[in-house]
Design a protein that fits this description.
Elements (H helix, E strand, L loop, with lengths): L2 H13 L3 E2 L6 E4 L9 E4 L6 E2 L2 E5 L8 E5 L2 E2 L16
Antiparallel strand pairs: 1-4, 2-3, 4-7, 5-6
């Protein structure tokens, strides 16, 4: 686990007014995607690093103006699986 990821996740938790979980858990999700050669991905879901929270947003007049609060369900970490790149000539 990259320690910088943990640090940034804790900062995000503070910014989103979330509750830091005392315990968290990682799961290995098994599935096949062409860009996931090892066949699994490490992710959090059941017990994530932070739960709940909200973000306050001032809406632009174009969107009706005023103030709105958006709820946050959880903050979780997961492994980036990669991506597929396609060239025009197929090479």
């Amino acid at each position: 686990m990259n320690s910088k990821v943990i640090e940034l996740t804790v900062k995000l938790r503070l910014a989103l007014n979330s509750n830091l979980s005392l315990n968290s858990k990682f799961d290995r999700k098994q599935y096949f995607y062409p860009d996931l050669s090892k066949g699994n991905q490490i992710s959090q879901f059941d017990i994530s690093i932070a739960e709940g929270g909200f973000i306050d947003v001032d809406l632009h007049q174009e969107f009706g103006g005023g103030h709105r609060k958006f709820g946050i369900t959880r903050i979780h970490m997961e492994e980036d699986t990669g991506k597929l790149l396609h060239s025009i000539n197929g090479a």
